[in-house]
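quick one, 293 residues, struct below
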Amino acid sequence: MKEQQHEVPTKEAQHKAPVEGKEHGRPVMRYGMAIDLDKCTGCGACMVACMSENNVPFKEDESDKLKSITWIRVYKLTNGKPYPDTEICYLPRPCQHCEGHGGHSPCVSVCPATATDYSRETGIVSQIYTRCFGCRYCMAACPYHARYFNWYDPVWPDGMEKYLSPDVSARVRGVVEKCSFCYHRYQLAKNKAYLNGLHRVPEEDYQTACTQACPSGAIVFGDLNNPEHKVHQIVQPDPHNGNKSKNPKAFRLLERLGTNTKVYYLSDREWVRRLGDNYLAHEETGKVAKAHH
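---
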């Protein structure tokens, strides 16, 4: 008998092929980010691009950070040592899009209005503004302070309303908002893929505004479940171990809470990785402390 030969599918055919594991007949994806903190310069281009793309309101005086809104905030970290041993690191923090256990994200679990929900198709935690009545339970539940409350109706400078994105609804006073991984871009890319007869959205067709704006290429975005996507190759998530990264440089914020976030950070510096969680002096990064008797 002749040995059966298997043809290697082309890249176009791979896009048309169904994904392993499906939810209601649709491909199951886990969109996420890998942010290299050793590349980030703290320029803030990601914050500006996000505000412009998503119609994020702003005030004349943005110095009051308790009332300002930004879907991605850049934090400045330091190793705490005096000069000349001082080291600085900048950490961009969008919504972490927690998966929790079976999609039970901290914010999703407490919302009484179902104004926020977890998509099993994309892994994105949504925010539905028309359902939100401003109880702010989600803000209290979020361990990453990634949600913001609209205390005021947005006031745009004369003429600026003409430059608002028509793909994103402007929010009103009294609702909570947050990073959506530019979900409107996913919808547009999904429609394009459908018209082209593809079952999966190509990596280059769905990229967030912050990813494209980063001048140093520190932010990589894509499907963590797709081995062809660059973010998967960088992170190497282990689905059998809570999606923890196999990359020794990678870590997630407050990973030991079990929120199973989809934003991974990379750094060669040990002190940076330690700041990602509340490690005690005797604990090693990436390990859970053993109980001492």
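The chain has one domain: 17-274.
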